[in-house]
Specification:
The protein is α+β, with helices and mostly antiparallel strands. The protein has a single domain (3-63), classed as Alpha-Beta Plaits. Helices cover 28% and strands 44% of the residues. A hairpin with a 2-residue loop joins strand 2 (25-28) and strand 3 (31-38). It starts with a strand and ends with a strand. The model has no long low-confidence stretch (mean pLDDT 89).
């Protein structure tokens, strides 16, 4: 079941990585804020990619 998440990352995700999650809304400033419905596997994939890019996750928030 997909859940609503907001993930804040220090730094900027590339357009290619943001495009990998078309159902999520990404806002890029000094942080990248990703919001949307993600399945468990989508969330794991995104967090792994962020880690491999060497970016720091500021916050992961699940909301209703």
């Amino acid at each position: 079941m997909d859940e609503k998440y907001e993930i804040r990352v220090l730094g900027r995700l590339s357009p290619a990585l943001r495009a990998a999650f078309p159902a999520a809304h990404c806002k890029v400033t000094q942080q990248t804020v990703i919001r949307g419905r993600l399945s468990g596997s989508d969330l794991r994939f995104l967090l792994e990619r962020i880690d491999k890019l060497g970016l720091m996750i500021v916050d992961v928030y699940r909301y209703q």
